[in-house]
Specification:
The chain is of the alpha/beta class. Helices cover 54% and strands 11% of the residues. The protein starts with 9 loop residues before the first strand and ends with a helix. The relative contact order is 0.22.
Length: 174
């Protein structure tokens, strides 16, 4: 299967723990389109965990580097991007997201909290084990407007498997 607009990038956006990094490889395989996991790429570039980079640079400086990487990389056309949860914070990134096909993986905060708590091995600088539901809700509320502003479609992921989500994305692309 190929996209109608062969040069259009596909962007998966959403909160940390919403499934972007799990969905991108399967979607990539089904569409026969290369995928990029921006957080994994940045980890590779820095040769450190995102958490270490955040602590050394501050979140603000990290966001500048993340944005620079994202803007430059998205000049290559027709990729699937599993973006970092905060990619929508920079205006330039939002402009790029609006020029692609952008899918918001909307996952309830209580589900995200459970996923993050059960996966302690993942480095997530904005999530500390023991963080409360209210703290995650606050982060969601800060970003919600931008997620919705950039999305072509919104998929509620709560009771769906990765395969079901991928099929829903493919139907939306057609």
């Amino acid at each position: 299967m190929q996209l109608t607009n062969k040069s259009q990038n596909i962007f998966l956006i959403g909160m940390m723990g919403s499934g972007k990094s799990s969905i991108a490889p399967l979607l990539s395989k089904k569409l026969n389109v290369s995928y990029v996991d921006t957080d994994k790429d940045l980890i590779s570039i820095f040769d450190e965990t995102i958490e270490d980079v955040f602590s050394k640079l501050t979140e603000h400086k990290f966001r500048i580097l993340e944005s620079t990487y994202f803007i430059e990389h998205t000049k290559q056309k027709q990729h699937i991007y599993a973006t970092g949860g905060g990619i929508i914070l920079k205006k330039g990134n939002r402009k790029i997201l609006k020029n692609g096909f952008t899918i918001l993986l909307d996952t309830p905060i209580n589900v995200i909290l459970k996923r993050l708590q059960s996966n302690k091995s993942k480095h997530r600088p904005l999530f500390k084990y023991g963080q409360t539901l209210n703290e995650l809700k606050k982060l969601w509320l800060q970003r919600k407007k931008y997620y919705h502003e950039c999305s072509n479609i919104i998929i509620n992921t709560e009771f769906k498997t990765i395969d079901e989500i991928v099929l829903e994305i493919i139907k939306a692309i057609k």
